[in-house]
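User: Structure tokens for this complex, please. No commentary.
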Amino acid sequence: MAALEVMIVDDDVASRDLLSGMLRTQFQARISTMADGVEAMRECRDKSFSIIFLDIEMPGTDGFEVLKVIKSIHPNQFVAMVSGHSSLDYVKKAMGMGASGFIVKPFSTSRVQAVIDKYMSEK
Amino acid sequence: MQPDIEKIESRIAYLEELKQWVFNAFEVGQNLNEVFTHVKADKSDVEIFDEIIEQLEQLYGFSKMAFLVVDEEDNDFSLISCQPRNKQNQIQAEVDAQIKCGNFAWALSQTKACVVHSVSMPTTTVLHVLSTKSRVRGMFLGVTEKKVDDVNDSMMSFLTMLLLGIANTLESRELYRYVHEQNANLEKLVASRTKELEEARIEAETASTVKSTFLANMSHEIRTPLTSVIGYAEWLESGSIDNSERQEATGAILRTGRHLLKIINEILDISKIESQKIDLEIMTVPLHNMLDELGHLLSVQAQSKGLKFEVKHNFPLPRCIMTDPTRLKQIMLNLCSNAIKFTDEGEVSVDVAYEKQSGKIKFSVKDSGIGIPDESIDSIFESFTQADSSTTRLYGGTGLGLNISKRLAEMLGGTIQVSSVPGEGSCFAVTVDPGTLNENELAEDYEAFSIKDVTRAETNDPSKLASLTGKVLVADDNSDNQRLVGFYLSKRGIKVVMADNGQQAVEHALVDDFNLVLMDMQMPVVDGLEATELLCSSGYSAPIVALTANASKEDMDKCLAAGCVDFLTKPFDKRRLNQVLEQYLPLAGEEETEQESGTYDEEFEALTQKFLLSLPDKKFNIEIALASQDWAELKSLMHQLKGSSGGYGFSDLGSAAAKVEALIKNQNIDDVDVMIKDFDAEYQKVVGNQKRA
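Assistant:
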């Protein structure tokens, strides 16, 4: 199985490190990390990823805006939203915009596992 | 010339004779015509042939005549009419002789008269077939004293003509009769259909009247307790009551509420039975276990009234029967509770017997209670009828139980019969079909009967079941249901988190780690279906089991389509609930799967160190934000900490941060200072531990 190509977009370095550590060690994924929504959109234009973990609460361009752009470039891109808020409105909005997963910080490995399983089953 | 004159004279005489005969023939023809024109529908074939023979006799002077007709069933010729009647045997003998010598068969193939020597007597026999173009109907036989050669050809041709006419007329008559018969049948059919329709109409009208009466009764039965619920609630609302009155009021509301619930459940049961929506779950039921359970339940009830309750076994009894245990218990509980209710002293017993002849199991519930008056014994199985309307006031009850029990008993292949002596007691005998029993396996005594094996004893007491572990999210807007499920689950050793609606369900589910989600489908804000869909589409992986009050196939399919793995119908069937719990939750004592401590590898350790090292920086930023009262910045910092701390195993710090964030979000700036102190304390714990480590 080819390694997962994952992009993590989060302005918080601790969160980024945590998730990338988890993905690298537990799921042998290849990771790109972005700290900024605009940067992530630029990266997406040229490259495709298996999964993008996209934080919602970011300064400037938030996760929803990034999601919108990514889905307009790659409608089939698998994007899992990451949020510090477990809010139904967020979940509804994200799913409505075409996100494929939603996990809430702090998350356990099993949540990440579930998202990856979902990606595998939809691939 | 003389001979010529003689010749001419004899010729004239002959012609005269012939002329006379022709006249006669005309007359006979006309008479025969008469015979047929005026044939009455009810005239039998024999009578008609008799009349024909009478006419032919006038014309032909046969000494013996007979008609034979073809029997449609065996194609045999049978004599229907003859003349003279007293010579029937001779005639029959001649017929048999002609058949034997082949003349009869020959005559059948001819369309004219066959004139032959009689076989059984010294005369001449005329055989003439009676046939139409379509089929042979019979045979005419005439015996004349004339010699064979003397039989006049023209007269025979005329006979041919007559017989052809007769045959055709007979056929027409038959067709006419057939048409007539068909008409009559049709009329009869229409009449019977009309009658059936009329009966159906009356039945439908009766049913509709019964329904209306039922509805009227029902609304009365529901209105009455509702009145007291509303009354007491208004009383409570008025506020001008003391504590004991309050207790009385809430007690009454609860009591009547439960009564109402019972009525509604029973009405639903009835309607399910009527629309044949009750599916029986036939399974092997250890009779001993069922009776035991019944005994436990009812002796408590009986004891509270100072009554004795006893199960009497009449051996031999089968150890296991095939039936629907839930429904059988429902019947037995209803009958026994009734018996206890209507008995003030003495005893209530259940006699169990296997009736070898009918092959049924019979449970006779006997009491020494008030009994049922003769005039009302027939109506007690009707809906909303108690023997006396005052009994409702005295003894409570919905008046639906017996109706349901009887119908259920019928569904289980039996019935309920009642006998009673007013003032002495009643006996309700339930029979059910126990399925095919092996006669050799009947238990002869209690010891053999009560051996425990076959099926695992079923118990509903959660504390007697294997202890489970894990965490379950229960989403139900009804707080009572929440409490009930919560109680039950916690008794089995399960941690329970409640959600009041779909929104909370989604939000809890995404934050906490659950082994199982029990999701009510009908909830305010966001219903269970939508919540389930959202969770599943967001990659939620814990199993979601639907709770639903409507158990239609359509609803089930909807639940499954939304992503539920299973469903439970409300009210809970404990057995099903246990099944689901045991399927998805680990047994206590097993390795807990959710704990991931000890799986950190070196890199993870390093990351944690990195996080810890970054903490002072974060703390510094927090101090700055606090000092400059930059609440937005503080909120964002706290938010980040909330999100990341838990992941590294510092959940207390995370929740302290979350509280600060919540305060700022809710504009409770004044309280932030207090909360920050908590946060600082948690922070010190984390950092302090680190320094010690």
